[in-house]
Amino acid sequence: MDSTGAVRPTEIDWDGTRRFPVLSCGAQQEWGRWESGSVVKGWRVEVAPNVWRTLWWERGRFFVERRDANGE
Fold this sequence. Notes:
Helices cover 0% and strands 51% of the residues. By secondary structure, it is mainly β.
């Protein structure tokens, strides 16, 4: 959380075995409605130089999308 109270990811802990620092945090978006409990947030984060991923939050948990064998 930053000084304004906004959540800003600083590190991704992968199953407690590997950690990836967030080098930069880009756009944040929010979808859904708090009233119906369907809010999903997404951040564009840089995890290595010029390697960007979307970090998602839903119902108290963070996750990233799964990549296939080709890295897509």
